[in-house]
Specification:
This protein is an all-alpha fold and 222 residues long. It is built from 11 helices and no strands.
Length: 222
């Protein structure tokens, strides 16, 4: 199993890159350093010039992989959603009871992220902080419909549909499973944001919002 997981690749829509960054050591270094810089500086203050200096290469080498930093941010978000779906599938695979499976899926989605040794070029905890703080900037744009048509948000939508399917196993007659699925995913990450920045408007100040989301889902589908 460990050997199989070590060869696993997270699929990212090819519309998000010029050249697949996982195809070379330089590309992986771009991903590794871009996560560190966006986590530390924010997407607004990160530039390809700064990124080039961090990887010991010139700015033009980054453009061989990504058209601009918006596409780079979208790539990182897409990779994260694909990785999170992989976590849900792997950790729920052997669970037979549907209710237990749903609880586990919600826990995986809402818990604090820890580093995954299967992907050495990605710092998953730092990437999760980017999702919490920067993800909305990847789709709140005038080009969102065009980018959606190109398949740029396929990883996120696939995660929603994976959770949607698990919800329907528990409550096949529940009329809003897709809406509930994306509510769980988005709320989980937003609650982490509130815990870090607006503590006065959340009860989830010292822990992950898992209990809150379990309560929310249970009351919605009962």
């Amino acid at each position: 199993m460990e050997s199989l997981l070590s060869n696993l690749r997270i699929t990212v829509p090819n519309c998000l890159y010029v050249k697949d960054p996982e195809s070379s050591d330089l590309g992986k270094k771009i991903i590794e350093q871009s996560i560190q810089q966006i986590d530390e500086l924010g997407i607004e203050n990160m530039t390809f010039k700064k990124l080039g200096e961090a990887i010991g290469s010139n700015e033009s080498s980054i453009y061989r992989y990504f058209e601009n930093k918006h596409k780079l941010l979208m790539y990182l978000c897409s990779w994260y959603w694909g990785w999170l779906e992989y976590q849900v599938v792997i950790q729920c695979f052997s669970i037979k009871d549907s209710k237990e499976k749903l609880d586990k899926a919600i826990s995986v989605i809402s818990q604090k992220v820890v580093e995954d040794s299967n992907f050495t070029f990605v710092n998953e905890p730092a990437l999760s902080r980017i999702i919490i703080n920067e993800n909305a900037k990847s789709f709140l744009t005038k080009n969102v419909d065009e980018e959606n048509d190109e398949g740029a948000f396929a990883s996120y939508k696939r995660l929603v549909m994976t959770l949607n399917k698990i919800i329907l196993e528990v409550a096949p007659n529940y009329p809003y499973p897709k809406s509930l699925a994306n509510t769980v995913i988005d709320t989980a990450h937003h609650q982490h944001f509130l815990r870090d920045h607006f503590k006065s408007i959340t009860e989830n100040t010292n822990h992950a919002p898992t209990k809150y989301l379990l309560h929310l889902v249970q009351n919605a589908i009962q």
